Amino acid sequence: MKLDSKIPNGPLAEKWTNHKFNVKLVNPANKRKYNIIVVGTGLAGASAAASLAELGYNVQAFCFQDSPRRAHSIAAQGGINAAKNYQNDGDSVFRLFYDTIKGGDYRSREANVYRLAQVSVNIIDQCVAQGVPFAREYGGLLANRSFGGAQVSRTFYARGQTGQQLLLGAYSALSRQVANGKVKLYPRTEMMDVVTIDGKAKGIVTRNLITGAVESHSGDAVLLCTGGYGNVFFLSTNAMGSNVTAAWRAHKKGAYFSNPCYTQIHPTCIPVSGDHQSKLTLMSESLRNDGRVWVPKTVEMAEKLRKKEIAPKDIKDEDRDYYLETKYPSFGNLVPRDVASRNAKYVCDDGRGVNETGEAVFLDFRDAILRDGEDAVRGKYGNLFDMYEKITGENPYKTPMKIYPAVHYTMGGLWVDYNLMTNVSGLYALGEANFSDHGANRLGASALMQGLADGYFVIPYTIGDYLAKHPNEKISVDHPEFKKCEEEVKAKIQNLLSINGSKTVDHFHKKLGKIMWNYCGMARNAAGLTKAKEMIKELKKEFWADVKVLGTGEELNLSLEKAHRVADFLELGELMVVDALHREESCGGHFREEHQTPEGEALRDDEKFAYVAAWEYAGDGKEEILNKEDLVFENVKLTQRSYK
Amino acid sequence: MNLTLKVWRQQNPSDKGGFKEYKLSGISADMSFLEMLDVLNEDLSEKGEDPVHFDHDCREGICGMCSLYINGQPHGPTQTTTCQLHMRSFKDGDTITIEPWRANAFPIVKDLVVDRGSFDRIIQSGGYVSVNTGGVPDANEIPIPKIIADEAFDSATCIGCGACVAACKNASAMLFVSAKVSQLALLPQGKVEKRERAEKMVAQMDEEGFGACTNTGACSAECPKEIDLSNIARMNREYFAASLSTEKS
Amino acid sequence: MSWVSKTLNSTLGKKLLMALTGLFLILFLVVHLAGNLQLIFPDEGKSFNIYAETMATNPLIRVVSILNFGFILLHAVYAVILTRHNKKSRPIGYAVSKASENSTWSSRSMGILGTLIFIFLLVHLRGFWYELKFGEVPMVTYDGVSYKDSFAIVSAAYQNILYVIFYVVSMGVLAFHLSHGFASAFQTLGINHTKYTPFIKKLGLAFAIIVPALFALIPIVMFIQGS
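Above: the input entities. Below: the structure tokens describing the complete assembly.
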């Protein structure tokens, strides 16, 4: 199928304005005739559901958590970018656009990213109007900070809880529409499948997680705002429930899955402490502003550290390797996430990791404390230090923090056009669930911006165009397609429950996670990926033969919920490996060891790979089909990223 | 370390339920409390027993989904969420009693899982600023004194976990409701509707069957986000002022 | 429903009534104590008897005293209503509870403390108020005017050691009730401020100690004087 990204004509800066004028509108009186299904209630989902309901559409919103307010957007710490230029430091829409394109290693669409930068300013206005308590200066105006290596201060923040405050803002707007009767909320309900009729998305089949009831919901359009798939690695900074199921089921119903191999590994997480670990905790990137990253220069010394024969403070400065500062003199400890992560991996692979598992490096505040005093450091990072101490039992004022990279965000996702519609008519993907704006690497404080941009300011315009062109036809949930889909879902549930094997769901999930982390993590190579593909295939077979799912389908059943999710992760994992294998270049979060500069940096191949890989599901057990959307750059020049 | 767990098991809302005892060994002090329960559940699953159901999601102390009344205190002995409670807070040989949140307005779903939909309905009754998307003024149009913005932020950090209700001897939701009423009453954007909001949210809170506040302060003392009691006083003020001043009978 | 009854029927409204009546009763305690301290003036009960006569005959005092009885009843009735409501809010309790970790004993025991105070009040009213109003009271004459010798009734009563102990213990109960109730009333009225609340709390604690202590002092002194 030919992929039409539907990018409007005209100069970059006018595309969105022109497009908004050119799209068809739905008459206000007709809006109430349309039903829109929104799956997921994070920043993208809640903002979309609220905004569409305000316009007059009927919205049904679904989430698997007990309340929309629990969505994992809530855990974002750092902030949200916007090209407000309140600081008079030379920021502009074009600069935000440029930074985002460059940060994404030139693997995203110019038009989408430009639009994102444009609407970023509206997001801040909207959130403030909702009562989001952003940080302020003494004069009463909004405060900004620079974040993630940006050279301007454009990040708005609410202490270290920006995601929480933005999500609660969107949740309050959503709640208001629930009270107005325009949104019907379905908490503790998991989407099991998309129903398409004549090639158009017409509804979904869900499972009520409390009663186990499998139910159908019909609508004129379906929006998937279901987040990313980082949990394919088992250990990640995602919430325990974050999953790919909704996006994956849509993929199997025909929606293309794009760039699945682009995963972001965040450099500053608390290291794994043992096999029992269930998730990884992020420490804000802001710590790298004052902390210095190092490991011992010699393996012997590292071994002594691991055995606790010496303490970090016993190691003299000349025996410490401040590897980021040495290698990247101008950016030092502030290099982008992918670079910082990869270098931590290198020194640990070298045998110089500093904790029992050998997978940790120091983030040391000794010099900052000597320079500014402990109080100043406490003022800036007190809550983070407390959090670190709570989790690890070590006091970071006295001994250096230990950090290690962890899976954090997934840039890949469902392929969408400029209107955020997948290649399936009437099926949309918003926020982290789509692939569109971050290319191969996302910059700090850009995820919140994208989720809210999609929900508040893009979808309300673009969905009207589709609906206006498709006069609404009520489709009953008794339609044979719905019934068929329900039967398939029930059969799958029954199947999982009847295997009655010997291994728990987590057993498989952990195994899959290890494979993904070892072969499709921070650095990848052809041999490893090829091996991983076979291993995942084996694991998938084993899963369907030997998984043990207890209980019944007609009750709250955590292991059944997990089994569904892990089954989908197993399929996705394979596709990620295939994608990583086919992309014979390094870019952003995708680093192929075969493709690096002499200095060990990512080496892109713009000739061959300046495209979006959009994978098409071909059927059970068949290789997925690669479709390409060529990326055209008219406004930026492709350069090698350098942080020396 | 070795532990004895006494866990509340209840198949469904109509089941009578009761405590069940489990022995656990080889628990590391570095585990979080929920990871300790993961170990229990893996054990149970391997033995073919139904795992203990409990709510949790982000496991970094912000989503508010985890709960549990642990040894007589919501979220256990430290003032944090259960997911941030670590086993180093316990000793080898300890017996740990784990109960669900107990409140009329939080009916039990299964085992330790309760339904906190009442909190959502309270927010729906008025916990928002009535603005539509678009058409709002520039974010810097209305300056807000830093001290007010900070105070509003302190109120806004509520994660809606329900520990306040669980801790209160009256199962009162005053701290939760007042945190939202306060946040929005402090900010100029929310001031416009502050009177109606207080009236509506209090009415909904009462309708849900939460208890009345007796100012014991247990809610704030157990709140993982340390929401202050001054929020409750502010809501009282707003509510009485609303009753006296809003122009409807 | 009118706005008044709507407000007063909300949990906040009921608490408002508790706070307002409570504060009134706190004021009453001050007045009552000021009068009663005259019992231990070394004037053979003269000033107390004159004071008691005024209290019984002044029309304004009469109105206030009826109000006072009303408020005591209102305070008690609403306490019962709220307690029942609160019990219903948690039909099944916890097996293990460590409430002492998060709140004071007195704040959690206002109901039982209040009940004890109510019992004390009944005994107290039967012993003095009823006796003085309807019982046979000897008369004394000061400066040619005759007064009921209330002092004689009180001092006779306080010769009974059990009675004295009952009074002193009851004042202890009152102290605990006030130690939470005083500051709590302000909180309920919405008076909470970083500048003033610490003062209110200290004042409440001082009040809760000093006022019941002085009340308790009277029977002790009179018992010692009499024996």
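Note for the figure: Chain A has three domains: 12-262+411-469, 266-406, 480-602.
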